[in-house]
From TrEMBL:
UniProt source species: Streptomyces diastatochromogenes
Pfam families: Tn7_TnsA-like_N (PF08722)
Designated name of the protein: Transposase
InterPro entries: TnsA-like (IPR048000), TnsA_N (IPR014833)
Residues covered by the TnsA endonuclease N-terminal domain: 83-157
Length: 242
């Protein structure tokens, strides 16, 4: 669907002190302001609601990040797991654009600050993407975001096996829960090509549950990788991160 986005595109953001900056010019808004932005919209709670809102403690951010649906939580897990993502902002701003003589507004779900630059993400179930109003909104949002040289992504349901593996590994994301000497010993071991089950049996003088947990923490933190498109098992092969 084509759109004709008139300039200037404007942006409103909620600062860390809960004050708001209104109608800023999109092209010149400093990234530092968005890095510290608070969610533009507050939680919506009502009887019978279909969405499951909540907060997730992000290892990337070192703080809680909100989500408004289970699908948004899925994207949040993927972002937290990705080593190239350096910061996550939920509902980072309100975007406004003049299109065909009307002011259109949209709040993206996430802003991810990555090694490849800022990435604006909208999360939507796949079956809703072809709805005209959804397609229209995402079309002009993409045009506005990419006009600044940033990336834009519409994210729908992922591979369920990958999602469940990442959800499982997220249980091992809090680095302060692991003995640094144990983690250091495992880091010093050549795990490349080793079966996951064999890695769990390393360091026989240490309780196996602690070793297993530390290995899974190394998988979460990206020290080693493995194929995630099938349920994790002892037969998974570990690879050194590129």
């Amino acid at each position: 669907m084509s759109t004709a986005v008139a300039t200037p595109v404007r942006l409103s953001v909620r600062r860390s002190d809960e004050s708001t900056a209104e109608d800023l010019e999109w092209q010149s808004v400093p990234l530092g302001l968005l890095h510290e932005a608070r969610p533009w919209r507050t939680f919506r709670w009502y009887k019978g609601q279909q969405h499951y809102s909540g907060t997730y403690w992000s290892a990337t951010v070192g703080d809680h990040v909100i989500y408004e649906s289970r699908l948004e939580l899925g994207r949040l897990l993927f972002a937290d797991f990705a080593p190239e993502v350096r910061h996550i902002v939920a509902q980072p701003f309100l975007l406004k654009a003049d299109i065909d003589g009307k002011v259109r507004k949209h709040i993206p779900d996430y802003l991810l600050l990555t090694d490849a630059g800022p990435l604006v993400v909208d999360v939507k179930p796949r079956h809703r993407l072809e709805k005209p109003e959804v397609a229209f909104t995402f079309s002009w949002t993409r045009e506005a975001v990419t006009s600044r040289g940033w990336q834009y992504e519409v994210w729908s349901e992922p591979d369920p096996a990958v999602l469940e593996n990442i959800r499982f590994l997220a249980g091992y994301r809090r680095d302060w829960l692991f003995d640094p000497d144990l983690v250091g010993a495992l880091r010093a071991t050549d795990l490349d090509g080793m079966l996951l089950g064999d890695a769990f049996r390393l360091l026989p003088d240490c309780p196996r549950p602690l070793v297993k947990s530390a290995v899974l923490h190394l998988l979460w933190s990206g020290h080693v990788t493995t194929v995630l498109d099938r349920p994790l098992s002892a037969g998974h092969v570990l690879r050194r991160a590129a």
